[in-house]
Design goal:
Elements: E1 5-10, H1 14-25, E2 29-35, H2 39-48, E3 54-55, H3 58-64, E4 69-72, H4 79-89, E5 93-96, H5 104-117, E6 120-123, H6 131-141, E7 148-155, H7 159-173, E8 179-187, E9 201-208, E10 213-219, E11 235-241, E12 244-249, E13 253-258, E14 261-265, H8 271-287, H9 297-316, E15 320-321, H10 330-337, H11 351-354
Parallel strand pairs: 1-2, 1-4, 2-3, 4-5, 5-6, 7-10
Antiparallel strand pairs: 7-11, 8-9, 8-15, 9-10, 11-12, 12-13, 13-14
Helix pairs in contact: 1-8, 3-4, 4-5, 7-9, 9-10
């Protein structure tokens, strides 16, 4: 049996602990360090993880043991610094949370650093492991919808929390086709001051190279998903084709109508079920370069480019071609571009976050 891969994790908040628990439970990994600036949170996490070595300084952690895998679950403003630290650690794979970066300039810098270092990386779009997501993709890929012409996604959460999820799964439902251009509009400046800075509402169109049209809405103006009670899981993603449609609700199962009739089934976002295969496939990719992780960086980067291009369309007006060829600071430009007007809500429950 192969020796377990040594893992160090920075950030012991909710998502960091999800990762740590899952790595700990997988015999292919050994948790050799956890790190957080908050000693109390670090102690609480360590007690749940069998008391691995603890650190309040990430550089001290990477110096303490040779890492095979560096994982970080920190606020988005630390992406570039953490990627540099992961490269410095000598790890063979870096795993981190979405969004991939906060601006296209930062994203391009991260991509260049990873490409130059030759390090594998994955971005945590782990919802795709839900049985309801898997079922919808199975129906689409099996051809039951005929010729797919539209993929779509909505979420009431704001952009840097949710839009990369929507785009990632729409690309998946569309066979991971490349996008050629986008066009978008946005409203509301309130969430630009958030730790996950975003316009309050952004909506747009994505034209894919295979002719499929993508439609996304994210934030305050997004429509309700009344079948789902929990606000953060009011997300709808799906595909329409010449012979039917299939869609998944993050917190409410799946449904489809094809020439064979109507179907539906259960499913709900569940970290306990979604994280184990996401983590196992990191071991598989480390074992064998041919077993590329479904959430690999190159795919996530294409989705990130789409998100940044949507922002640029808001800023510049009109269509924006892909791939992007030069970096920009889209967040600063959005703060200047968006008027100081109260966003109009898509459903009353959104007032709690956007009112």
């Amino acid at each position: 049996m192969k020796a377990p891969y040594r893992v160090g994790i920075v950030g012991m908040g909710k998502r960091g602990l999800h990762h740590a628990v899952t790595f700990k439970a997988n015999s292919r990994f050994e948790l050799v360090g956890i790190c957080d600036l908050d000693p109390a949170r670090l102690a609480t996490a360590a007690a749940k993880l069998g008391s691995p070595p603890v650190f309040t300084d990430a550089r001290a952690m990477i110096r303490s043991a040779k890492l095979d895998l560096f994982c970080f679950c920190t606020l988005p403003n630390l992406r570039r610094d953490m990627i540099r630290l992961g490269i410095e650690s000598g790890a063979r794979l870096i795993a981190f949370e979405k969004p991939l970066a906060l601006t296209s300039a930062e994203g391009m810098e991260i991509k260049k650093a990873l490409d130059t270092a030759g390090i594998k990386a994955v971005v945590s779009h782990q919802h795709r492991y839900g049985v309801h997501y898997q079922k919808v993709n199975e129906i689409i890929a099996g051809g039951a919808l005929g010729r797919v012409h539209t993929v779509y996604g909505t979420a009431t959460g704001w952009m840097t929390h949710m839009l990369s999820h929507l785009i990632d799964y729409l690309r998946w439902f569309n066979g991971n086709a490349d996008a050629e251009w986008v066009m978008a509009q946005a409203a509301g400046r309130g969430k630009l001051a958030d730790a996950h800075p975003s316009p309050d509402y952004i909506a747009g169109f994505i034209h894919f190279a295979n002719g499929v049209r993508g439609i996304v809405e994210c934030g305050a103006g997004a429509p309700d998903v009344p079948e789902v009670d929990y606000w953060w899981r009011k997300c709808r993603m799906g595909a329409q084709g010449t012979e039917g449609f299939a869609e998944v609700l993050t917190g409410g199962g799946w449904r489809a109508v094809t020439k064979n009739g109507a179907q539906s089934g259960p499913g709900c976002m569940n970290y306990d079920l979604d994280m184990p295969p996401y983590v196992q496939q990191m071991a598989d990719w480390l074992d064998d370069d041919r077993k590329v992780h479904p959430c690999h960086f190159a795919s996530a980067y294409k989705g990130f480019e789409i998100m940044m291009a949507l922002c640029r369309s808001v800023i510049e007006g009109g269509q924006v071609a892909l791939p992007l060829t030069a970096g920009a600071d889209e967040l600063t430009q959005l703060r200047t571009k968006l008027p100081a007007k109260q966003v109009i809500l898509g459903l009353p429950q959104n007032a709690k976050e956007y009112g």
